[in-house]
Amino acid sequence: MNARTWRAGRQFYKRVSGPVEAGDLIVRASELSRAGGKTPVPGYCPDRSAVNFPMIEGASGVALIDQVALSYLLAPLQPLRRAGISELPPFDPFAKITVRLNAKTPQWLRARLGALKDMPFEADGVVHGDFHCGQMILDESGNLWLVDLDDMAQGPVEVDLGNFAAHLATRPETRRRRLAEGLPFWAEQVQKAWDELGEVCNPTLFRRHVDIAVIRRALKLHDARGDSEIMAALEHLPLLSR
Length: 242
Description:
Organism: Denitrobaculum tricleocarpae
Pfam families: APH
Number of strands: 9
Largest sheet: 4 strands, antiparallel
GO molecular function, one term: transferase activity
Shape: globular
Keywords: Transferase
Number of helices: 9
Strand order of the largest sheet: 1-2-4-3
Domain Aminoglycoside phosphotransferase: 106-179
Radius of gyration: 18 Å
């Protein structure tokens, strides 16, 4: 929960700027549901300047890793890729990185970003845009719900897979003692799990998005919590995509 979200009884509310934003969220959820995905479809509450969702009770976060197979956690990406959602912007993998850069940003990090920006990028479907275990809820019937569709965009599936792997590699509950061990470990596990679903993934593009996502995580943890451990480890970590 944050200043933009709250719970009242059996309803969950998210503040929106107006009917246009509310309409976008309703369309995204409706189209994902139509494509076979499970996500709560919101209603618009203009008197509260918010959309409201029915509460989905269940487990969420990295605790899911111990409850179901990794491939099951990636399965919500399959209907998402089929969702016929028009007017989505192209996913910018560097958007949440650029806003955190400033005069104190070290040169090695700028060089790392420069190397990643030189690689090609193509949008070929719908992506969640912030896909990780905290965006899923496993209910008592074993249904897996995908939530928080605000960052949905056009992009390759490797965007979501890369973010998922980077998140696991940097969470205290799932990361290894050294990032140099944990990042390739989780990248390999996510790649295998996606393969188990019979889906196609470009390994080079996937590793590139792992590299980008771990930078986003490092900057977020440093700015929001003062956690510089991941940032310090990145300085001496070779790019997976090289």
